[in-house]
Amino acid sequence: MLPGVFSAVKKDGTPYFRSNITYQNKHISLGSYKTEQLAHEAYLEASHIISNHSISLEHALFHDKVLPFDKIVTLVNFRDNRVYIKTPIYLQKTYFEYFLSKNKSLKFDIDDLFYYSSHRIQQRGGHLFVSDYGMQYNILSRYGIKSHGVPGKDFIFANEDPNDYRYSNIIIINSYAGVFLQDKNGKVSYLAKIHINGYFNLGTYDTEELAAIAYNKACDLAKASGINKNFQLNYIENLSASEYAKLYTEIALPQKYLTYLSNYVTPE
């Protein structure tokens, strides 16, 4: 068997080959391959990368032949920073990069290193999420942004870099579902809206908390009218149950919306 290669057999009896390398007393798996030669080439590439500090991460990523990009990031980071991280993270002085591909990386604060070193980021339909305890969580939730928050509407990147997820770079505009900040000639207000078959305006409020409660009330009334939709309700942390109930009762929703609900017919 060629150096760095071990044979194995799948459950259906199909043979394959695993590639491994040991570096700084750490046994590192380099992946599984169809042929012994490919597994050996992966081992040779890994050996070349970790033994040559002159090879930059960028050079390694764009000149590899066999190794997947995430293994390359792990190897170069281990070589340069002497910290083994199983996810594709490269440590910088004051932050770290998490590589989604060889062409794209995200920047995070060091405070998030422990979390992302054990949680792999996945991308689907423009959303970034991690799996945790069998559930999928949008990474925006770590910033207090609703799961389907829209850049430019619900939050902005201060330096206009959409790949920079450091806390100082993310500015939240709308903290609650169904709430939209309005700034007219320097006067800030909050518009509450609900989407059923199109948007209904629920009124303009002086605070985002009041707008969030108005949205919650509109959702509750919609459900009571037989509208079967998965509305995302808001939780207002800085209000007690009694304070929330008082404001909830006092808020009067537009008659146009109430009329729509009273005439709503549940589809058969």
Judged by helices, strands and strand pairing, the structural class is alpha+beta
Overall radius of gyration = 26 Å
Average of pLDDT? 92
Number of helices: 7
| SSE topology string | EEEHHHEEEHEEEEEEEEHHH
Q: Helix coverage percent of residues?
A: 25-40%
Low-confidence stretches: none
Beta content: 25-35%
Count of discrete structural domains:
3
The tally of strands reads 14
Largest sheet: 3 strands, antiparallel
What order do the strands of the largest sheet run in, or round the barrel if closed? 1-2-3
3D structure, described in words:
The strands form 5 sheets. The protein has a 3-stranded antiparallel β-sheet, with helices on one face. The model has no long low-confidence stretch (mean pLDDT 92). The radius of gyration is 26 Å and the shape is elongated. The protein has helices at residues 36-50, 57-63, 69-81, 113-116, 208-224, 241-250, 255-262, and strands spanning 5-9, 15-23, 26-33, 89-91, 95-101, 104-109, 122-124, 127-132, 135-138, 155-157, 170-172, 179-184, 187-195, 199-205. By secondary structure, it is an alpha+beta fold. The chain folds into 3 domains: 1-62; 85-173, no CATH class; 179-262, no CATH class.
Any chance you could write out the topology, listing elements then pairs?
Blueprint: E1 5-9, E2 15-23, E3 26-33, H1 36-50, H2 57-63, H3 69-81, E4 89-91, E5 95-101, E6 104-109, H4 113-116, E7 122-124, E8 127-132, E9 135-138, E10 155-157, E11 170-172, E12 179-184, E13 187-195, E14 199-205, H5 208-224, H6 241-250, H7 255-262
Antiparallel strand pairs: 1-2, 2-3, 4-5, 5-6, 7-8, 8-9, 10-11, 12-13, 13-14
